[in-house]
Amino acid sequence: MRIVPRLRGWRRALAIILGVQLLFWGAYALIVAGLQPAGTLELYRLPAARALLASEQGQSSAFAAGLSGPALLRIPGWQPVILYPARASLLTRDETATGIEWSLTCLENPCPKAVTAYAGPFDPMDQAADWEKFLRFDMVWLVVATEIMMGAALLVLLPVNRFSRLQGITGLLLILVGVDAWLTTFGALSLPYGWFPLLRYGTEYLMLTMAALAVNGFVDWRPREAWAACGCFIVVFTILLGTMIAGASFAAIVPWLDAITLTLLLGYGVVALLRMGRTAPGPAIRVLAILLVALASIAFDLFLLPPPTGFALQASVLAPPLTMFGILFEIALQGHRLNQEAEEARSDLERQVLEQDASLLRSSQLLRHQERLIAIDAERQRLLRDMHDGVGGVLTHLLLDVRENRLTAPEIEQGLQSAVDDLRNMASAIDAGNEPIDEALAMFRERMVGRLVRSGIALDYRCTLPIPAPSLDVRRLLSLYRLLQEGIANTLRHASATRIDLAVEQGDDGAILVILSDDGTGFEPDSAAGAAGEGRGLANMRHRAAQMGGRLGIESAAGLGTQLTLAIPIAFAAGRKA
């Protein structure tokens, strides 16, 4: 069951690599065929072109293909002329120079074996020189510029990708490709030093080592293989250094070193391909295919490209620009895929968020419903307790006293009135719960004023609280109503008062002061503390004040009336409300 996916991944990777190779070499063949200059220079090749050159009536010039430096050209019947690489030089007739043979002598180093001299009309020579300049120099400058710029860009962007090892190695590889191209083409002229060959070939093998590290990074970084690649470079560089110190020529060992290093590198690429076939990661295989194209182009130039009878474009010169476009295409492809994945992830996230919102909404609605049920049940239980402790308790005691014939008709009326008052307090507290305290007390005054008028007592109410006034919850408001009801009942029973004042004002430390006073006979609070009935009078009022988190003050004296001052902290009231 595991072999089939591996074979599929291996075949897919091989198909990608062969396809990329086919595209590159097809493009290379088309470019070489399309960029070849029109016509041929074989008619003007020396020495066969001497007869044709003698009959030439127009402006004549000479050109030598494959020069590495200046050379002196001698042609019988013409003055000697200095030729330069990729440049056509004009010829001047000299009838006295007839006894010499034609010759081409390089002035700096021995002429390469592939150097070919041409002489003829100026236009074909100039076109051929421009073509060679484009192939040998302009294309190299394009490679140098593009590779170094891309490598530098990758190194500069390292912090963005958290100093990716693969990105750093790839950047160094691109820079080394550009440096190697410059040293190979222009280094000998720009750096005419004895140690230049060591610099040139050392850079080349360092570039191949960096290519091996890049392959290692693309597949799956393995430190042992990385150290092995660095060890191979050290061995090769030691061989080059020993050759340089011994004074031997590099021409004998460099071809063998090239063959060995390229074989090892290509073999390592095949091993990496087989390893990647287990999982077949598409992006890594495509980039590896691009690297193998570059290596194949170098091998083609070193071993398969014949001596330049014409002006063929080297594959290793064309490979870097094309591989650069391949890498850019790969980056664009990955960017497009990343955008698609990001869009799909965003859509999926939006869907999940919507589902989560709907779930949270359902949960919130269910929670609010349960909270309402709990609140309703709690309010029901509270009402039952209030009715049992308030109206129920009064009616129960009243019923027992009536059965025992212990009450007179006025006492029965008073008990029934107390039960009715408590029931009205409960209804008023429920109706005015969480309303501003000034409005709740105004409702209490309207409810009590009729009863007090029948008893000959006037009830005055005033409020000086700022608007909006604080509010109390139902339980505290009911306790306040009962406290005031108890205070008014005591006034009716004991004080012989003609006037009761109810006031609400702002106290110290943010408290609310509820003041109930009368003009009755008054009493001594200290002597009343131990009197009979204290449990149903002052003690009840103090208990209700404590339930509200407040404190009750009693001021009275014989003949001076009574004043009850209840202080309720606003913070306590607001906290209870919340």
Automatic annotation (TrEMBL):
For this protein, the record's PROSITE patterns field holds: HIS_KIN (PS50109)
Q: Which reaction does it catalyse?
A: ATP + protein L-histidine = ADP + protein N-phospho-L-histidine
- The Histidine kinase domain is annotated at 480-572
Q: Give the top-rank taxon of the lineage listed in the UniProt record for this protein.
A: Bacteria
Q: Could you tell me which Pfam families the record lists for this protein?
A: HATPase_c
Its Enzyme Commission number(s) read: 2.7.13.3
What is the enzyme's class at the highest EC level? transferase
* Record-linked SMART domains: HATPase_c
One GO MF term on file is: protein histidine kinase activity
Which BP terms in the Gene Ontology apply to this protein?
phosphorelay signal transduction system
Transmembrane feature ranges: 139-160, 172-195, 201-219, 226-247, 253-274, 286-305, 311-333
Q: Which UniProt keywords apply?
A: Kinase, Membrane, Transferase, Transmembrane, Transmembrane helix, Two-component regulatory system
Task: Write down what this protein is called.
Answer: histidine kinase
